[in-house]
Amino acid sequence: MKNTFYRPVEISTEELDSIVNKLYQDLVEFSKGYTDTKHLKEYITKLINDQKNLTGNSEMGFWGLDEPEKMSNDIRVLYFYMPTYIATGILINCKLNFPQITREIPEFNECLRKGLLGCTGRYFQGHGYDNIDGLIKALHVFIIAKAHIFIEKYPNDCQKFTELFKSVLENIENSLLSGKTRGDWGEDYSLQYKCILQAVNPNAYLELDEKLSNREVVLLFVYGTLMSNNRIGRTYLEDAKFLGKGTLKGYALYDLGSYPGIVKEAGKVKGELYSVPADRLPDIDRYEGEGKLYLRKTVTVNQENGENVKAFVYIFNQSTTGKAKIDEQYQPWYPGVARILNEEKYVWYAAYGSNINRQRLMAYIMGCSDKTPPKEEMPIMLNHPIYFSNHSGRWNHKGVAFLDLDKVGKTYGKRYLITQEQLNEIQVLEGGIWYNEIVQVGEDNGTHIKTLTHTPRYSEDVFPDLTYLEVIQRGLKETYPNLSSVEIDSYLLQSYLSIEMINVLKYLRSQEHGVAISKMGRELGHVSIIIDTVHKLKEFNLIRLDGRTVREGIAWDSPNAIYYTVRDRRLAIDNVLNKNS
Question: Of residues 288, 377, 425, 487, which has the active-site annotation?
Answer without folding.
Answer: 288
